[in-house]
Specification:
Largest sheet: 6 strands, mixed
Number of domains: 1
CATH class: Alpha Beta
Radius of gyration: 17 Å
Helix content: 25-40%
Number of strands: 12
Bound molecules: zinc ion
Number of helices: 8
CATH architecture: 4-Layer Sandwich
Distance between the termini: 33 Å
CATH topology: Purple Acid Phosphatase, chain A, domain 2
Length: about 250
């Protein structure tokens, strides 16, 4: 089966709609979402309405989802992130809030695992170094393990039997093989707020039969999203950064 893989949508409806359209056209029949569905952006309800309508959804919660639910201390969030949490709490529907509340921290399927940050600390750890990958390898059973949180499209692959780790950022269109019986972590990048200096929405397609992952980048109307963020009274920084992919 083909799975659309998304993460860190962050209430960016334009970006998410573009991604869903692209991945559906590529044949996605199931969906994997690594959390942070809300926060930062101005359209939590339209995003959740689209997400909840997708078939075979395997979604976990992220730290921003937990913050909106009042289940995470946001004192260490920066000012803009805190403002967005408060905005989301004031605008999200009761039904969408109830749906968010049911999201698990981790999902394990026979052909993949899903968490937000890292397998050993799903809510908080940014998995970005080879050392962290090594340390996390005993915390998941099925590969690939899909993660989000850093907003950086990248992959780590354990080359057995020498335990050499192949890793690096993922480029648009790049296809990576997912050999069986090896440890692999894949971050599809962020749909709604990419931070790799590339403003296009980042996402991927996982083929669990051919065992490949393909990275996609999708152009969307950044200016329209910026206008909505400003109209919602959210901090200017949250609008500006989208144009730079930071
Ligand atoms: Zn995020």
């Amino acid at each position: 089966m083909l799975w659309g893989v998304v993460s860190d949508i962050h209430s960016n409806h334009e970006a998410f709609s573009g991604v869903v359209e692209r991945l559906k056209a590529q044949g996605a029949e199931g969906w994997i979402c690594c959390g942070d569905i809300v926060g930062y952006g101005s359209e939590p309800n339209p995003v959740l309405d689209v997400l909840r309508g997708l078939p075979n959804m395997r979604a976990v919660r992220g730290n921003h989802d937990l913050a909106v639910l009042g289940r995470m201390d946001i004192s260490w969030f920066n000012e803009a992130a805190r403002a967005a949490v408060e905005f989301t709490q004031s605008t999200i529907s009761a039904e969408n809030m109830a749906w968010l509340k049911e999201l698990p921290p981790r999902i394990e399927e026979p052909t993949f695992t899903v968490v937000h940050g890292s397998p050993r600390n799903p809510a908080e750890e940014y998995l970005v170094t080879v050392q962290q990958f090594h340390d996390n390898c005993t915390y998941f059973k099925t590969s690939p393990c899909f993660v989000g949180h850093s907003h950086l499209p990248m992959a780590f692959l354990m080359k057995e039997p020498v335990s050499y780790v192949d890793h690096g950022p993922l480029a648009p269109g790049q296809v990576i093989p997912i050999p069986k019986a090896t440890r692999i972590v894949v971050n599809p990048g962020s749909v709604g707020q990419p931070r790799d200096h590339e403003p296009r929405a980042s996402c991927g397609l996982y083929d669990d039969e051919k065992r490949t992952f393909t990275l996609h980048r999708v152009k969307y109307d950044v200016e329209a999203v910026q206008a909505k963020i400003r109209a919602a009274g959210l901090p200017e920084f949250l609008a500006m950064r989208l144009a730079y992919g930071q």
